[in-house]
Amino acid sequence: MDGKLKEIALRVKDLREIANLTQEEMAKKTDTSLEEYKKFENGESDFGFTFIYKCADCFGVEIKDLLEGESPVLSMYNVTKKGEGMPIERKSGFEYHHLAPEFKNKTAEPFHVKIPYNDAAEPSFSSHSGQELDIVIKGRLMIRINDRTEVLNPGDSIYYNSGEPHALWALDKEGVEIYAVVMKGAEAKKEERSAVKAVKMQRAGVADKFIDCVTDEAGVLKKISFKNDDKFNFAFDCVDAIADKTPDKLAMLWVSGTGEERRFTFSDMKRYSAKCANYFESLGIKKGDRVMLVLKRHYQFWFTVLALHKIGAIAIPATNQLVEHDFTYRYKAAGVSAIVCTADGEVSNHAEAAAKDENMDITKIIVGTPKEGWHDFNTEIERFSDVYERKPDSPCGNDRMIMLFTSGTTGYPRIASHSYKYALGHYITAKYWHNVNPDGLHFTISDTGWGKALWGKLYGQWLCEAPTFTYDFDRFKSEEILPMFKKYNITTFCAPPTMYRFFIKEDLSKYDLSSIEYATTAGEALNPEVSERFREATGLTIMEGFGQTETTLAIGNLVGTKPKLGSMGLASPLYDVHVLDPDGNECAPGETGEICIKAERKDAPCGLFLGYYRDEEKTNAAWHDGFYHTGDQATRDEEGYLWYVGRIDDVIKSSGYRIGPFEIESVIMELPYVLECAITAVPDEVRGQIVKATIVLVREKEGSDELKKEIQDYVKKRTAPYKYPRIVEFVAELPKTISGKVRRVEIRENDRKKVQG
Asked: Domain 230-636, what architecture?
């Protein structure tokens, strides 16, 4: 067992040891056998509500302390709205919602309980110290106390000594709902209650004001809901709130390419984002302005993006790999009025030339070496106040917050526009996929020019109050990054499959990777061979996820779920994900279809984009008939796991067969001498299309006709024979977008030109 169950079990063990109780004594106090108790405490076996209630009573702590790792904070009163409350789900099937989780020093524990119908057998008896009041609100309840049986209808109640063996079950298939109030027993000893004083419980998080989650007994997320999201502003309600609560808590550890280290607390982030907001306003940047940020992995990115969120100006992250014509397109498409740019390399020259050629009046701010015609960020920001108060008209909720250019794998990049609610959608990304530790250090390797940086370096992580690690490098080198895991004690890690492929080509036995507790990947499909090799080296399974610039994490192997090798995982509870055929019908298990999210634009969930900026035509093409159409294809198995096939445009149709490129790529990637591979279609007069493999070999391997045949034969033996690549081409590198994604459209276009002569 793992996940939340393990966490609860560990808390039980810690409290037992603090209270100087033996396992034998705890087994007696909880009315379990010693063998049962040991399994409970080791997280090897599930336990019922009665067990956790008895443990809490014994240790003198609240149930919330054991279940959530945080203590109640209210002493006057605790209001719980209908349908809310702290969820407690156990394998028995009973669903508890604690109705006063935040009230301290309770003399009674109130619950809303749902009891499912079960005709297989009568439920087992349980008992716990104290007294209990049960009030039936729906269905018919049968309760047996020792050898006495009562049947209760809606409105009926029963008050009894809960120390006596008792069992409850539903008589109707619809189940039963009751209010249960459990009064604590008087036998709890004062000396045992001192245990709570020695336990360091996690404080309530800033996200609690905006997010409610329901998990099962394994800690698997089952439901997420949002509240107060129409007033949410990440900079004020997350970063500044943490700074006010725990000013010295580490927000980010930043390391330069030369080894310089800087540590920023949340108080630092609050102060510098305030200075930056005041600075930007002095330059005329105001609410609604579009500001491009080309800042690589410089720590100034975090100051600027938070400042823009406070002002209400719209942030447009962009990569430093852009050249002049890229800037020209983006300036015009987004209506950019200001740019904050790194001084590194030639990118500022390209940015300046594009503005000059198009005669655009763009405010230019540079980070690093000063440059004529540009404002000097590092110098000028220090002149401004480090106080910036929230205003009545400060942006929030559905206001536009950020605009992200798509990767452009099939044409000109589009601009996905997101509201302030977008940040909330990434709570799942960080907590239930990255599995960030508030006392650990999370490392997502992306630079700030891409949406993946927002996935892993900002929103979700800080909503979970987890520090992040940033390495501000120019060129990816495995031998530089791998030692950092040990040096900085990095606990959770996320990178695209390409970088994992480079990792496994190294001798990983030379590096200490023991600090990594969890590893994830997204951005493109993960080849099973890469996952297996990494697991062999580290013992870690890479947990794959899927999302787009337009979404947060939509599909993933979430914490507590059992991954299937090669699968993207299950649909996130945040989104209603479907696999649809071209006619809009749900695909049967194993049938290829398009990944679609059921949602109306006017009522889209937090995390789903507002639409493509200034492009209603493309927005309507992607979002219609009550669904957002991702353009990506997958199959779904009987258990709901999704398997990536490829972009719709990438699917190959040969002799009546529909062939997904990813399966073939995964097989070819098993070969030790293959570094990268792209499968595309080549026009063919007889078959319509045939399969082509474009392959990059490792440095010590040379291509040959014999090697081509070896690869073809290898694929024939491991897939359906019709899927093998009839054409194999060896190249020095694959054409890619500036975000690093393979441009299969370019390979297809070049082949089409060759065929046409």
From this structure: 3-Layer(aba) Sandwich (3.40)
